[in-house]
């Protein structure tokens, strides 16, 4: 069956799969035009918490970024119901390859035939989980950072993605106050994360090896680059469990040992996941 681009999408829902730290922020941005946005999670409590987050943050986002004050939100734990007639589906589940492969096979079967199936994966190219997808031309990476504070989005083809999808999203995403960037060739880590991976890896190692404390690294980074965003604060925002998954994947691709894994595993075992748990490399989150 030949794929055709979605039609009448201004009046159709958008679905975000996963109501965690990034999923709820992605859903917030995609709600700005007033379309119905559904957040699906296997844990309905997480989906409801995501919808509550959007409801509390949306007024400020509309004031600062523009958009439609009207909002239609739904929390779902029923995947077929969450996908019904959606024109865009964005996956934001943990960085587990098997999980994403199984999910995209399900999305391919359950979503509308013209729905665009996008992955927010920060380390896996979508080419790695289209084996069970009958229409790979509608699958791509749509990598968000930490909206609404950081609104860049990287779009990368699966190697089979219909070029018209890339053109459509490059044109449509700015309407949601997003800034799309086209990744012109398949790349592990896309554009920024490929660069950030080197900074993150060495930052973790100088702490794991006892060369410096996180505060020292962040203070130097802030002073030298005059940056408000620093490595360890940023990792705490992302979540140390997510950081570990991503580092494990990068090291597997490169065929090297993840020497920072024991330190991260120790933090995770203590429940120190970063901002979302109240403690990570720093213990001053309230």
Number of domains: 2
As for the CATH topology of the largest domain, it is Rossmann fold
- Structural class by secondary-structure content: alpha/beta
Widest β-sheet, arrangement of strands = 3-2-1-4-5-6-7-8
Give a structural overview.
It is built from 10 helices and 8 strands. The protein is an alpha/beta fold and 286 residues long. It folds into 2 domains: 9-183, NAD(P)-binding Rossmann-like Domain (Rossmann fold); 192-277, Orthogonal Bundle (N-(1-d-carboxylethyl)-l-norvaline Dehydrogenase, domain 2), CATH 1.10.1040.10. The chain starts with 13 loop residues before the first strand and ends in a 17-residue tail after the last helix.
What secondary-structure arrangement, pairings included, does this model have?
Elements: E1 14-17, H1 21-30, E2 36-40, H2 44-65, E3 72-76, H3 79-83, E4 88-91, H4 97-110, E5 116-119, E6 139-144, E7 152-157, H5 163-172, E8 179-183, H6 192-208, H7 214-225, H8 231-238, H9 240-254, H10 261-269
């Amino acid at each position: 069956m030949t794929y055709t681009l979605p039609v009448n999408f201004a009046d159709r829902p958008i679905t975000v799969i996963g109501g965690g730290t990034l999923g709820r922020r992605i859903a917030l941005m995609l709600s700005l035009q007033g379309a119905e946005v559904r957040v699906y999670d296997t844990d309905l409590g997480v989906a409801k918490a995501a919808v509550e987050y959007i409801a509390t943050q949306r007024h400020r986002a509309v004031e600062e970024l523009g958009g439609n004050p009207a909002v239609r939100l739904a929390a779902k734990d029923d995947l077929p119901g969450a996908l019904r007639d959606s024109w865009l589906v964005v996956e934001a589940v943990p960085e587990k390859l098997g999980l994403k492969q199984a999910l995209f096979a399900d999305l391919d079967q359950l979503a509308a035939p013209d729905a665009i199936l996008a992955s927010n994966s920060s380390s896996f190219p979508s080419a790695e989980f289209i084996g069970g997808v009958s229409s790979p031309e509608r699958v791509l990476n749509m990598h968000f950072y930490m909206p609404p504070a950081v609104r860049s989005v990287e779009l990368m083809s699966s190697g089979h993605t219909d070029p018209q999808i890339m053109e459509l999203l490059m044109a449509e995403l700015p309407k949601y106050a997003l800034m799309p960037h086209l990744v012109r060739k398949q790349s592990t880590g896309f554009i920024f994360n490929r660069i950030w991976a080197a900074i993150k890896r060495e930052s973790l190692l100088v702490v794991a090896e006892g060369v410096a404390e996180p505060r020292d690294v962040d203070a130097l980074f802030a002073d030298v680059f005059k940056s408000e965003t620093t490595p360890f604060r940023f990792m705490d925002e992302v979540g140390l469990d997510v950081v570990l998954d991503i580092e494990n994947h990068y090291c597997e691709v490169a065929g090297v040992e993840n020497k920072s894994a024991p330190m991260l595993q120790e933090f995770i075992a203590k429940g120190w996941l970063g901002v979302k748990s109240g403690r990570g490399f720093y213990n001053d989150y309230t």
